[in-house]
# Entry
Amino acid sequence: MGVMKIVILGCGRVGSTMARMLEREGHSVTVIDWNADSFRRLGSYTGKTLVGSGVEMDVLRRAGLDGADAFVAVTNGDNTNIMSVQIAKEMFKVPKVLARIYDPVRASAYHLLGIETLCTTSIGAGLMTDFLLGKEPRPVLDYCDIEAELNP
# Structure
């Protein structure tokens, strides 16, 4: 795959780390956050940054969502992440979208609706449980179904 145009919503620990990793891989990255101070986490990152809300069409347009290859929402709010991913997918037709969701029940429900989610709560709990019990770790995506396993 060639150079991708990627927009990341949220410049916390995950968003800033992803931005630096993706830029190092040669991709074109834009980071959106409502707090300009968050961009300090980016260090030597040279990509574009934009202050604003990830659920406002104008902000997403200025971030370059038109023509983006991927959009990732990693704010600390599940609702913001889901809304922004739906906007990116439906309004801007971004081919690859991903939302980080903390609530395992929500993540499972949204996944069933065709929205790509990663529930870091389920992944972390599953990995830690397997480690604690001396089990081999499963593939990461297997942990995303933990909520369905617990509530059949």
Summary: The helical segments are 13-24, 57-62, 78-90, 104-112, 120-132, 140-143, 146-150. The chain has two domains: 1-101, 102-152. The first helix runs from residue 13 to 24.
